[in-house]
């Protein structure tokens, strides 16, 4: 599937990795609809891309909103064959913190956004993609998950976040296997330490220290590199059911 031919929905596309994906797809000639809860940044991102890029406010934890947004996106673009799930939260916090044990509601919220939100978007998009006309190799669509190296080397304070990112990675293969009969692939990307809006809010020396921990290249990952990998996954049909680390060979320490 050539990136110039995609009709893509990007969740969390108002900023960070999602915005980079939307920008990359649009620049390559593809169509994009951005889903996010951040209305101001979302509209600004869509406007900056132009080319008919649409922003739709959508809470990925609300099933009815997700279903309606996917259908609206498909109508707007005249199709839907790529979903990139970038909506998520860090959800940092110790299980036994200074103020007592972590509230169950906090853990549940992280699960709802990062894991259930990804599932709801996958399900809604796949339900539409199954009716696409098959392309090369009988392909009808592609679902991309955003996992994290925290899925494999979760640090102290990342119990909730790591659990969801491991689950997102774990959901990839069974989805790929089930949806194979429709020609729909599912692939996860596990980024390492990337220069996102959250990272940009940290002091320069902290950013430099984190970047120096990456074996090579010794710097923070660039959102555009994540977007480039998304494009490569689109175009290499044999990539399926896999979680790809994009991390400069870093292996996270306990803290």
Sum this structure up briefly:
With 255 residues, the protein is an alpha/beta fold. The protein contains eight helices and nine strands. The protein has a seven-stranded parallel beta sheet with strand order 3-2-1-4-7-8-9, sandwiched between helices.
**Mean pLDDT value:** 95
Describe the largest sheet: 7 strands, parallel
Helix content: 40-55%
Instruction: Please tally the β strands and state the result.
Output: 9
Strand arrangement across the biggest beta sheet: 3-2-1-4-7-8-9
Q: List low-pLDDT spans.
A: none
**Radius of gyration, Cα only, in angstroms?**
18 Å
What proportion of the residues form beta strands (DSSP E)?
Answer: 15-25%
Shape, principal axes of CA atoms: globular
Structural class, from secondary structure content? alpha/beta
Distance between the termini: 40 Å
**Helical segment count:** 8
Helix and strand pattern: EHEHEHEEEHEHEHHHE
Task: Characterise this structure.
By secondary structure, the protein is α/β, with parallel strands linked by helices. It is 44% helix and 16% strand. It contains eight helices and nine strands. Strands 3-2-1-4-7-8-9 form a seven-stranded parallel sheet, with helices on both faces. A two-stranded antiparallel ribbon has the order 5-6. Helix 2 links the parallel strand 2 and strand 3. The longest helix has 26 residues. It is globular, with a radius of gyration of 18 Å. The mean pLDDT is 95.
